[in-house]
Write a structure and sequence with these properties.
Layout lengths: L1 H14 L5 H7 L4 E5 L12 H4 L2 E5 L7 E3 L2 E2 L4 E3 L6 E2 L3 E9 L3 E11 L3 E4 L3 E16 L2 E2 L5 E2 L1 H4 L7 E5 L2 E2 L3 H13 L4 E7 L2 E7 L2 E2 L6 E2 L2 E16 L5 E4 L15 E15 L8 E7 L5 E8 L2 E6 L12 E2 L9 E8 L5 E11 L10 E5 L2 H7 L10 E4 L2 E10 L2 E9 H17 L4 E3 L9 E2 L1
Parallel strand pairs: 1-8
Antiparallel strand pairs: 2-5, 2-7, 3-4, 3-6, 7-8, 9-19, 9-25, 10-13, 10-19, 10-21, 11-12, 13-14, 13-15, 15-16, 17-18, 19-20, 19-33, 20-24, 21-22, 21-23, 23-24, 26-27, 26-29, 27-28, 28-31, 29-30, 30-31, 30-32
Helix pairs in contact: 1-2
């Protein structure tokens, strides 16, 4: 009779799930969990003790030695909510089932156990030097010939702002100076130029006849272009096993075209913070940095993605705040609540600052905006007003594990911003290795890269 009564109570809780916090805890249990070796599996139910005692957890038998409880393999066995929680001891998969009265299955949870990953958290300020693949078209201009007639040859040939010039007359484009020289030489030889253009991942060709510019005395086609960018950001992590690094947490885009820059060559170098411009509502602040020449801290940028820039450091890296590598938190393990951010405000000194994870964004696929972060540290708020440009990539640590990195600031509230989950950032480093083996809220990305030069030709 007692069991029957409890069963009825539980059924009523499930029916009233949208109103009852106890039933909500049941419905909010994930159907999938991803954990690392060494982590405990927990199923948090806010049920009364009497009700919990009517529940058991059964582990299906096809997961030998994936989960151990008190040192015993529990594959094909059941345990109750008061026996403790099993530890993931080896990579693999397990299906666990919550049962009522030991026989009635009411919830299945698929558990995937991944190898434990430990990385060195970053926090160092870095200078980022990026050279694009080809040259980027950032503007158009009128060319006036010696009779005063006005032309725009490139526009007439169909070239738009945001296009990337990959080749001119079959030669690979490596700099804006090269393009300007080639155009002038072709004009003086009274020849057309054949351009290979990339637009949104697709390529096409365009033929253009240069015009002699009355103002400059050289042949031009009416475009503004540039080939490189430089800015200050923050290193997110370093993997001592692979030598790979991640930084920024967001893609570097052209400031005029807002298009991602395809990397042909790039590097990160040491940077020292010389000043801080505090942020305020409607106007993000920024770090003022200086690049330093140090061959012991140098990395090649191999990938520019929506989760940041990735590549290889030339020498091993240590963090003075964390003497040893620390574990990562997978997406399922990140919780709302207190955390800390590592970043530099003065010189090259990495410091800890208090933040709060306000929200974890539901994601069906990897995305760079996985967290909403709020700065709560009084000293940081007084000094910077919150999140500022140059903090992009600052690692976030919660309960001794690295959970992600800061990526954006809310323009209308600089105390808050977005963060990217470390799990998605690490996937990008794996892709870098594969490539090598083959061959409604306004926010601002951090940093806002100023380009080194623009050429008009």
């Amino acid at each position: 009779m007692r069991r029957k009564t409890l069963g009825v109570i539980m059924a009523l809780l499930i029916i009233a799930g949208t109103f009852n916090p106890q039933a909500k805890s049941f419905f909010s249990l994930p159907t999938q969990q991803r954990v690392s070796v060494g982590d405990r599996i927990r199923l948090n139910l806010e049920f009364p003790e009497q009700m919990l005692r009517q529940l058991s957890v059964y582990v299906e038998p096809n997961s030998k030695k994936v989960l151990l409880l008190n040192g015993i393999d529990i594959s094909g066995r059941a345990f109750n909510f008061f026996d403790g929680w099993p530890v993931a001891t080896s990579p693999g998969k397990a299906i666990i089932q919550i049962r009522l009265f030991g026989i009635l299955p009411i919830k299945n949870v698929s558990v995937e156990v991944l190898p434990q990953t430990k990385i060195v958290p970053g926090g160092q300020s870095v200078g980022v030097l990026l050279h694009s693949e080809g040259v980027i078209v950032v503007g158009q201009s009128i060319v006036q010939d010696k009779e005063g007639r006005k032309y725009n040859p490139a526009k007439e040939a169909g070239i738009l702002v945001g296009d990337v010039i990959l080749r001119v007359n079959g030669s690979v484009v490596t700099s804006d100076e090269q393009v300007a020289s080639t155009i002038d030489q072709a004009g003086r030889s009274d020849k057309d130029l054949k351009f290979l253009i990339k637009r949104k991942g697709k390529t096409f060709t365009a033929s253009i006849r240069p015009v002699l510019c009355r103002e400059t005395g050289r042949y031009r086609i009416g475009l503004y272009i540039r080939d490189s960018a430089a800015g200050v950001g923050t290193l997110s992590f370093y993997n001592p096993q692979t030598g790979k690094f991640g930084a920024l947490g967001h893609v570097i885009t052209d400031s005029d075209t807002n298009q991602p820059i395809d990397v042909s060559d790039g590097k990160i170098v040491r940077a020292s913070i010389q000043g801080i411009q505090a942020g305020q509502k409607g106007q993000p602040g920024e770090k003022i940095g200086m690049f330093l020449n140090d061959q012991r801290f140098f990395g090649n940028i191999e990938k520019n993605t929506k989760f940041g820039i990735y590549g290889t450091l030339r020498y091993p890296l240590k963090n003075p705040v964390y003497s040893e590598p620390i574990s990562i938190a997978l997406a399922d393990q990140v919780k709302t609540g207190p955390a800390e951010m590592l970043t530099v405000l003065d010189g090259e000194k990495i410091e800890k600052f208090q933040v709060e994870i306000k929200k974890i964004m539901p994601q069906s696929a990897p995305d760079s905006k996985g967290l909403i972060v709020e700065v709560t540290d009084p000293r940081l708020l007084k000094r910077t007003g919150g999140i500022i440009q140059g903090m992009s990539g600052s690692p976030l640590i919660q309960k001794g594990k690295i959970i992600g990195a800061v990526t954006h600031v809310f323009i209308n509230d600089p105390t808050r911003g977005y963060g990217c989950l470390i799990e998605w950032m690490l996937l990008e480093t794996e892709q870098v290795e594969k490539n090598q083996q083959k061959v409604g809220i306004r926010e601002s990305m951090l940093p806002n890269f100023p380009f080194q030069k623009i050429d008009n030709f």
